[in-house]
Design goal:
The chain is an all-alpha fold. The chain contains 8 helices and no strands. α3 packs across α5 and α5 packs across α8.
Length: 179
């Protein structure tokens, strides 16, 4: 098999140089994406450290519960019964406390910044997010919206978009320090 046959077998590439260029482009995109995720995580950790008071225990408890529910849902999505895993759920939940406290503290800071900067999410942005999700799941935007309205999920979508807009706003104005 010659190199141009290999390139054609790997996709719609004319030759090996085109295949290499695509692989390089994909690797660079992934590196940028990873760096962005790490920068955002670092920002959230730094924001959590700036809250001058502890996170309210009721919010921390709720975040711990949310994390447990999310993990159990991931197991069920993989066709694993969470009750049959042998996981010590109390220990697992207790292990989520520090991360939950950080998440709550950073969320409080982000929320305050959004309020002070008057960062809002428009109906058009919510609709674009619904359309994006619909495309990913192979459903119609109307079906996704109806489901969200039924479950009271439109406010979660809006809150998530506001949070992301606020984090983008902060990222555009800060210099992250090496830890």
């Amino acid at each position: 098999m010659c190199s141009s046959d290999l390139a054609k077998d790997m996709g719609d590439f004319e030759n090996l140089a085109a295949l290499r260029a695509r692989v390089r482009e994909d690797l660079e995109h992934e590196a940028r994406h990873t760096a962005d995720r790490e920068a955002r995580a670092s920002l959230m950790k730094q924001l959590a450290g700036r809250l001058p008071f502890g996170a309210p225990s009721s919010l921390v408890e709720r975040e711990m519960d949310r994390r447990i529910e999310e993990f159990a849902q991931q197991l069920m999505d993989q066709k694993i019964d969470p009750r049959q895993t042998g996981i010590d759920w109390k220990s697992f939940r207790d292990g989520q406390r520090e991360a939950s406290e950080d998440a709550v503290r950073s969320a409080l800071v982000v929320s305050e910044i959004a309020k002070r900067e008057q960062i809002q999410v428009g109906e058009d942005e919510v609709m674009r997010e619904i359309e994006r999700y619909a495309e990913q799941t192979g459903r119609t935007a109307a079906a996704v919206r109806a489901s969200l309205e039924k479950e009271g999920g439109l406010s979660r979508v809006s809150a998530g978009l506001r949070r992301e807009k606020t984090i983008d706003f902060i990222m555009s104005r800060v210099t992250l320090l090496e830890e």
